[in-house]
Design brief:
mainly beta; single chain; 9% helix; Porin
């Protein structure tokens, strides 16, 4: 716990000068960012049938991705590079059990301005530590997935120089005991740039 606190304090101190110049139009070319996306797609990993309601599924491409990272973007340049680390999860929870597919994706994206407020991005994604877990009445087994390097395309509309809405598509696959699992997904997201 002390190590995490020390690393967080060190990161905050290192980012302090950057945070004073918020937005992609600032003179500082380094811009921390945070974001979230809602995603869907990929192979169905499991389905839970509820006693008094509809069923719910966990997929290899869903559902919520939270991330943070940094973008390098020179003021006035039509090109930028973005690198992020995130947490991507799809789960079904009930009072007597749960099922969850989680992974830690690293993404590197090259961005190109089509207009001052619209840009396209192409990049790579690798989802680390992908695993499926289940417990209680929802127990169907657990498994560690082997990730494959995937590609992504995205489009982003810059609402302001600090906020962007994006649509994205990721093509990725996993292996579980030699069986290929499609984790490809589409999504919509929001980024905030400091």
């Amino acid at each position: 716990m002390k190590l995490i606190t020390a690393l967080t304090a060190l990161a905050a101190a290192a980012l302090a000068p950057t945070l004073a110049h918020a937005g992609l139009d600032s003179d500082n070319p380094v811009h921390p960012l945070v974001g979230m996306a809602i995603t869907g797609g990929g192979d169905k990993l499991s389905t839970i049938e509820f006693e008094h309601g509809p069923s719910q599924s966990v997929t290899a491409g869903g559902l919520v991705q939270l991330y943070g990272g940094v973008e390098y973007h020179q003021k006035g340049s039509p090109v930028a590079v973005q690198a992020t680390l995130g947490y991507h999860v799809d789960s079904v929870n009930a009072s007597n059990g749960s099922q969850k597919f989680q992974r830690w994706p690293v993404e590197v994206i090259a961005l190109f301005n089509a207009t001052p407020k619209f840009r396209m991005g192409f990049g790579a994604r690798y989802a680390m530590a992908a695993k499926f877990t289940s417990d209680g009445a929802g127990f169907v087994g657990n498994g560690d997935f082997k990730s494959q390097l995937g590609g992504l395309v995205m489009a982003e509309w810059l609402i302001t120089q600090s906020m962007g809405l994006q649509v994205r598509y990721v093509h990725e696959t996993y292996k579980l005991e030699g069986v290929s699992v499609d984790g490809s997904h589409g999504g919509v997201g929001f980024n905030y740039y400091f």
